[in-house]
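Lab notebook page, bench 4
Experiment: in silico fold of construct C2
Operator: M.H.
Input chain length: 374 residues
Purpose: comparison with the prior construct
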Amino acid sequence: MEKNDWRLETLAVAAGRDTSPGAPLNVPPTFASTFRDGGGYGYGRWGNPTWTAFEEALGALEGGGAVAFSCGQAATSALVASLPLGATVVYPTGSYLGTRGLLLDLEKIGRIRLRPVDITETAAVVDQLGGADLVWLESPTNPLLGVVDLPVVLGAARDAGVFSVVDNTFATPLLQRPLTWGANAVAHSATKYLGGHSDLLLGAVVTGDRELRDQLLSRRTLEGAIPGTMEAFLALRGLRTLPVRFARQQQTAGVLAHLLTRNALVKAVRYPGLVTDPYHERARAHMAGFGAMLSFDVDSAERADRLVSALELIVGSTSLGGVETTIDRRSRWRGEDDVPAGLLRLSVGLEHPDDLWADLEAALGHAAEEASGG
């Protein structure tokens, strides 16, 4: 079997390794600011063997060439920095707060022009593409778990000559590979599922365009948005177990989503794996699974906060994608004004589903008692 025929689970383990005789089985972290002349690196800001190994592995999974950055926001910034002055960007109104914050800031200083749109409304997105320079997409969306019709939107962007980027952090390449649908680039916060252990900051861009990859490498070098050696090593080690971690996390997310729909305190559950979810059929058609993120609404910020404070196993935290289950009331953050006040985003980890549900059920009961004055 040729390497090109390997399945994603195999690539996650086998890609990005030095297969020369006598080489260590795992590429070790290379702590060096300077290299001897005559090799492939020269100076530590230009490249590092540990970065290269991670980039090769992620690139193999996404089907392109990867460039690692110091964090996901740095990866996003590098992509946006290539836009000409006054460029028009179609961007999602409901999406990752950091991306929206960066784009809004650039609009404020006159660097770009923005066209906000609900990216889950396919016709609306296509209508906004005329004369645009960039369309920024993410699917599923953060934190409302909307699913974009990526094949259609990316095809329309290609036909309109609009540069397209998909933030694939929530889905990972295990569920979808946007480059195969015509995306110009895929962005990742490797801090999340790829690293998977809540112990590093790292970002990446993957593209099938060699010229764009060279531009991103140059941008990273000039601006110094380089990944740490240890962070790249840890991210690669995390990537090796992504398939098994993500499979378990998805399975548990489905269990919890179904149980949450039966609780009287929960007003709505957002998870594309539910057959009642408005994006279920779209996710079934285009994704290889439904992911491990879900959101549920308990109707008020006060009730949501009481629930979080009563949890003993699940961790109140703003990040996601780790082995531990975390929960976050997103409306507490400035800029999340359109998120329902009582919405809680749940990143499902690797704990036993029965223990997670016992913790959630008890906390829901506590929130309900306090709400009723009991």
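Observations: The chain is about 40% helix and 15% strand. Residues 52 and 131 are 37 Å apart (CA to CA).
Next step: discuss at group meeting.
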